């Protein structure tokens, strides 16, 4: 298991990771499974070790808003486990996933102060990221927001090929629309614009970024 940079396990020492793994039990879910549900109350968290999930919420009209895509090393469900409030989002597996489920997470943090401090740093980083995305929604057009999300996926999950950087896209166009705060039609138009400029190539559940720097400029 190799945790993604910036995720919870990437912040820990090998000794810390052993402590975390020993505190819970391993679990597995198939693709498309609801792992946590918005509105539920629970004291358990999941440390993701394999696969990717989407974190989403629904508006009053039923529209899904994708808040984040998380990969190996991510900590999920910590806010509800800490403050006892209902879960603020739903976590769904985008592919087969595995992780360590830890119950009584507050008790675990009370016993392991160093890990608790690192968790505070993680939560602070997520709040800053949420602020950045709110700025994007107000300042960028749809194509800019789509370019930003594709760039994020390419940097986190991309594999270099002769033609560029290939990303096995875990999201449908509807989900990508929910992640960019736009309609499916607007996202389709944005993808077509990026293709016409030669920045990307799209296929079923995949994207190849031919020009990372060009995509980065469009994202700005």
Question: What are the main properties of this structure?
Answer:
globular; transcription; alpha+beta; 4-stranded antiparallel sheet; 220 residues; WH_DNA-bd_sf; Crp/Fnr family transcriptional regulator; single chain; RmlC-like_jellyroll; 8 helices; 25% strand
Overall description:
- The model has no long low-confidence stretch (mean pLDDT 90).
- A 4-stranded antiparallel β-sheet has the order 1-8-3-6. Strands 2-7-4-5 form a 4-stranded antiparallel β-sheet.
- The protein has 220 residues and is α+β, with helices and mostly antiparallel strands.
- The protein has helices at 14-23, 78-83, 105-111, 113-139, 142-157, 173-180, 184-196, 212-219, and strands at 25-29, 34-36, 45-50, 53-58, 64-70, 75-76, 90-93, 97-102, 159-161, 164-168, 200-203, 206-209.
- The protein is built from 8 helices and 12 strands.
Number of strand segments = 12
Radius of gyration over C-alpha positions, nearest whole angstrom: 18 Å
Distance between the termini: 33 Å
Overall pLDDT metric: 90
User: Structural class from helices and strands?
Assistant: alpha+beta
Residues in β-strands, percent: 25-35%
Q: Which percent bin holds the helix content?
A: 40-55%
Q: SSE order in H/E notation?
A: HEEEEEEHEEHHHEEHHEEH
Number of helices: 8
Spatial ordering of strands, largest sheet:
1-8-3-6
Shape: globular
Largest sheet: 4 strands, antiparallel
Residue windows where pLDDT falls under 50 for at least 5 positions? none
Give a brief outline of the structure.
The protein has 220 residues and is an alpha+beta fold.
């Amino acid at each position: 298991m190799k945790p993604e940079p910036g995720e919870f396990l990437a912040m820990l020492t090998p000794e810390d990771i052993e402590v975390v793994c020993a505190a819970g039990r391993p679990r597995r879910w198939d693709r498309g499974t609801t792992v946590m549900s918005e509105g539920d109350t629970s004291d358990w968290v999941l440390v993701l070790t394999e696969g990717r999930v989407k974190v989403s919420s629904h508006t009053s009209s039923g529209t899904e808003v994708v808040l984040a895509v998380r990969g190996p090393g991510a900590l999920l469900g910590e806010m509800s486990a800490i403050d006892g409030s209902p879960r603020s989002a739903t976590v769904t597996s985008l592919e087969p996933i595995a992780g360590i489920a830890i119950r009584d997470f507050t008790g675990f943090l009370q016993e392991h102060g160093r890990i608790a401090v690192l968790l505070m740093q993680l939560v602070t980083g997520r709040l800053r990221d949420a602020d950045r995305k709110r700025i994007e929604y107000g300042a960028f057009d749809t194509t800019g927001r789509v370019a930003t999300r594709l760039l994020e996926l390419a940097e986190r999950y991309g594999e270099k090929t002769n033609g560029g950087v290939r990303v096995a896209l875990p999201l449908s166009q509807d989900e990508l629309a929910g992640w960019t705060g736009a309609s499916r039609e607007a996202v389709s138009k944005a993808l077509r614009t990026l293709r016409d400029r030669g920045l990307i190539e799209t296929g079923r559940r995949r994207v190849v970024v031919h020009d990372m720097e060009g995509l980065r400029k469009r994202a700005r």
